[in-house]
Each structure stands twice: as C-alpha cells, then as structure tokens.
Amino acid sequence: MPLNFTNVNDNLTSVVNTVEDAMLADLNNFDPQTASSADLISMQVGLQKWTLATNLQTNALKTLGDGLKNTVSNVR
C-alpha cells in the first residue's frame, strides 16, 4: 500500500471509528443508577482511547499534509 494522504486518512478513520463504536456501546450500556467505580474508570479509559485516536489522526494528517506541501514547494 503506498503512503499517500487517502490511505493514511482511510486507515486512521477506520481506527477512530472502531474506538468510537466501542465507546458508544459502553455509553449505551451504562446505567448511572447501578454504576460502580470500575464502570466509571472503564468509561474514562474509553474516552482517553478515543481522545488518543482522534489526536493521532489529526496530527498524522497535519504532518503528512505539511510534508507534501514542503515537497511541492521544493519542486518549484
């Protein structure tokens, strides 16, 4: 698979969607009336995983975009 903007974006989007789906499933099964400390910690871990995945996606795409812009600028 070549390293290009579309491939990187598609793969990172897939990872973010997987993490987001898992977090949404946890939210849908969450009952605040019966939640334990372990349930709350699990929810927090899920949110941290989602935050990490979205930050990774944002930073990777920005870095790749900046690199491509620099390459085009150097070719001129």
UniProtKB/TrEMBL annotation:
InterPro entries: T3SS_needle-like, T3SS_needle-like_sf
Highest taxon of the lineage: Bacteria
Protein's GO biological process: protein transport
Protein name: EscF/YscF/HrpA family type III secretion system needle major subunit
Record organism: Sulfidibacter corallicola
